Amino acid sequence: MNDGGNGDARRKVEDANEKLNRSLNTWEARYMEAGKEGREDMSGFNRVVMMGRLTRDPRLRQTSAGLAVADIGLATTERFKGKDGASRERTCFVDIVAWGRQAETCGQYLKKGAPALVEGRLQLDRWEDSDGNKRSRHRVNADRVHFLSGNGKASEKREERTLAPVGAAVPAGLADEGPAPF
User: For each of the chain's 182 residues, which pLDDT tens digit applies?
Assistant: First the structure.
């Protein structure tokens, strides 16, 4: 049975989780060691991994030095049951910035509604608006943006690369994977 590309998405999520767990274990060991030595200058850990759908087409621009920058909006929805047993959902909207070749690729292949997995770090931007008010916002500075199989809203180039011909054989090992974990 064809999984509609969810096998690739599952592998990307599993790979990202494995990398994150290795990083967390490394940071936990450093934290514990620093605590044993009585140091107060323990480093923090700033890592974000999220999966969702684009809320708009990426906005591609260039810095004065010619470096590509893509501003991306991502929405992730959490589904849960309330105390009354009714199904509820809560959506989180996050601004993401990608740089260089990653930004160019996002601008070329991602469109509003396309699913993506983003790995990066949280950053705080501060500025003063035209009225002199101090402003700030958090956003994710993307290290990696993984393109996941789409729902038909991704660009045609992307669809051509992910669709198999009707009646094509399912690659070995994909037929028995079961439903996707998300």
Answer: 455 556 777 787 788 777 767 766 676 666 666 666 655 555 678 999 999 999 999 999 999 999 999 999 999 999 999 899 999 999 999 999 999 999 999 999 999 999 999 999 999 999 999 999 999 999 999 999 999 975 544 444 444 333 334 344 444 444 444 444 44
CA-CA distance, 40 to 32, in Å (whole number)?
Answer: 12
Q: What is the DSSP string of 22-86?
A: HHHHHHHHHHHHHHHTT-S-------EEEEEEESS--EEEE-TT--EEEEEEEEEEEEEE-TTS-
Distance CA 35, CA 37 (A): 5
| CATH architecture of the domain covering 47-162 | Beta Barrel (2.40)
Ordered by start, the domain boundaries in the chain are 47-162
Prediction pTM value: 0.60
